[in-house]
Amino acid sequence: MLGTLLIRWAVLAGAFAITAWLLSGVDVSGGVWGYIWISALFGIINVFLGTLLRIVTLPLTILTFGLFLILVNALLLQITDGLSDHLTIDEFWWTAIWAAIILSLATVLLNALVRTASSA
Predict the structure, then answer these.
(1) Which positions ≥6 away from 42 have C-beta within 8 Å?
(2) H or E element: which one contains 98?
(3) Which of 36, 73, 106, 9 is nearest to 28 (CA)?
(4) Rounded to the nearest 5°, which phi and psi values hold at 57?
(5) pTM for this one?
(6) Which of these, 38, 45, 86, 118, has the minimum number of CB atoms within 10 Å of its CB?
């Protein structure tokens, strides 16, 4: 169980690294430990506040076929940016929304790679 948590934490840190590399408006400072810190903080915010936001916005999420979750994730990224000096997002509308999309896709891709590597 602890190993799975550490792997997910590393995958999220890698997804943040990919997002910062692809998107010029997102910057993570502090090297490897900065990515680890940001992924831990985002994970904690996502568990508590993200769950509450997803429940509250469920009707709107259903109405938009799940696309509203991109805005929820962008808001969670902005909150993480506000709570940490290691993450900098230029602006909410486009940068945070693109960061949420890229972060989600990178996480799915890295999870698939880790799952494939562990089953081989």
Answers:
(1) 12, 16, 76, 77, 80
(2) helix 97-119
(3) 36
(4) -95, 15
(5) 0.90
(6) 118
The answer to whether the CB of 72 falls within 8 A of the CB of 66 is no
What DSSP string runs through 49-67? IIHHHHHHTHHHHHHTTTT
Is the distance from CB of 2 to CB of 29 less than 8 angstroms? no
Helix axes 68-83, 31-45, angle to 10 degrees: 120
Q: Name the DSSP letter for residue 92.
A: I
The 10 Å Cβ neighbour count of residue 56 is 11
- Give CA–CA dist 112/116, Å, rounded: 6
Q: pLDDT of 45-54, one tens digit each?
A: 999 999 999 9
SS3 38: helix
Please give the sequence-ordered ranges of beta strands (E in DSSP) within 74-116, or none if there are none: 87-89
